[in-house]
Amino acid sequence: MSRTVLVTGGNRGIGLTVARAMADAGDKVAVTYRTGTPPEGLFGVRCDVTDPEAVEAAFDEIEAQHGPVEVLVANAGIIRDALVPMLAVDDFAAVLDTNVVAAFRVAKRASEGMLKARWGRIVFVSSVMGFMGSPGQANYAASKSAMLGLARSLAWELGPRNITANVVVPGLIETDMISDLSDRRRDELVRQTALRRTGTAQEVASVVRFLAGDDAAFVTGAAVPVSGGLAMGL
């Protein structure tokens, strides 16, 4: 059955791969993007997820095109790295606003239709850095760890209506996000990864598809690592 899927930040990286994987499975997929152009073959909606009015307008547009959102993948995120003594408070706040406050905002809006339908899937895309920490990423790590508390609270609140909320926790994935890593830091993280390699966006997308499907109907409030063993057990 074709479902209405929304992937925020779905114009590149993990988000785009997830969106294409869901579309390939027959779902009606919409993606939000803030800059650039919408991905070919997907229904793109320009939206700054930190702007409440833009989010409302995006949902109205998606619902008019595809119907109420049944599967939400909250993936949009930014980084503004700096060691804490040099990290501007505005940069700390901006990362939390985009990565976790906006995730709450879209989950809140999507839940309205899910509650009426008594069915839904919410998947937050986090990061192992949210659980192990990383020098220069206090803001990013804080935002990604907050997703777990958000997802588990939603799992309790929405579970009676057959709505699940889960977190995918990628490790070192080959996307633009890690392109600025120094060779030294990259090698260090690979050595800490049990499989001794980086992952692919497709490997993350496969887990998202599982959590969004019927086979995961009894999975909620979970943090599922897709990390090759990096930070296992955290």
Automatic annotation (TrEMBL):
Keyword Nuclease included in the entry's annotation: no
UniProt keyword annotations, A-Z: Oxidoreductase
GO MF annotation, one: oxidoreductase activity, acting on the CH-OH group of donors, NAD or NADP as acceptor
Domain Ketoreductase: 3-181
Gene3D superfamilies given in the database record: NAD(P)-binding Rossmann-like Domain
Pfam hit, one: adh_short_C2
Record keyword Oxidoreductase present: yes
Cross-referenced PROSITE patterns: ADH_SHORT
SMART domains listed in its UniProt record: PKS_KR
Homology family: Belongs to the short-chain dehydrogenases/reductases (SDR) family.
Full protein name: Beta-ketoacyl-ACP reductase
UniProt organism field: Dactylosporangium sucinum
